[in-house]
Amino acid sequence: MDIEEPSPTAQTTPFEWIGGEERVKALVERFYDLMDLEPGYSDLRAAHGPALDNARQRLFWFLCGWMGGPSYYTDQFGHPRLRMRHMPFAIGIKERDQWVACMDQAMGETDVPEALRSRLKQSFFQTADWMRNKGV
User: Fold this and answer.
1) Domain ranges, ordered by start, for the chain
2) Position 136 pLDDT exceeds 70
3) Rounded to two decimals, what is the model's pTM?
4) Which of 10, 22, 32, 125 stands the most exposed, by the fewest C-beta atoms within 10 Å?
5) Separation between Cα atoms, residue 43 and residue 74, nearest integer Å
6) What distance in Å separates the CA atoms of residue 108 and residue 104, rounded to the nearest whole number?
């Protein structure tokens, strides 16, 4: 599926660049579908419990605002406090790497423009690394 890649300007947000809510939703859906399908993400999937509906919705809301679109997440829950909200889960290097790899695969499979994909992957890695709470 080829989508027309918008030409980003200095004022373009990642939300606009990716194509808005529909494209963020497609990315989130593919991310969680891959988590269910790919054995290489099994540790990541196990950390999410039996149902993914809540996680799908919250990541969609979060990414919309984080990318410069509507602030659905903060309107509902306030400041994301990502590290605090993820403390109950053991997040080490393996979990970080699986999360970033799964998201990168989802970005590739949903045709996120390459320059944006590279930029987001770096930001996702930094955030995921900051959330690590176990050594390995």
Assistant:
1) 16-130
2) no
3) 0.89
4) 10
5) 28
6) 6
N-term to C-term CA, the chain: 38
Side chain identity at residue 25, one-letter code: K
DSSP H stretches of helix in the chain? 14-18, 21-37, 42-46, 53-66, 72-77, 82-86, 93-109, 114-130
Average pLDDT over residues 17-33: 98
* Least confident among 13-17, 34-38, 43-47, 63-67: 43-47
Q: What is the DSSP letter of 132?
A: -
Inform me whether the pLDDT recorded for 9 exceeds 70.
no
Which CATH fold would you assign to the domain 16-130?
Answer: Globin-like (1.10.490)
Nearest Cα residue to 27 out of 6, 3, 7, 51: 3
Torsion angles phi and psi, residue 54, rounded to 5? -65, -45
Given a contact cutoff of 8 angstroms between Cβ atoms, the answer to whether 72 and 65 are in contact is yes
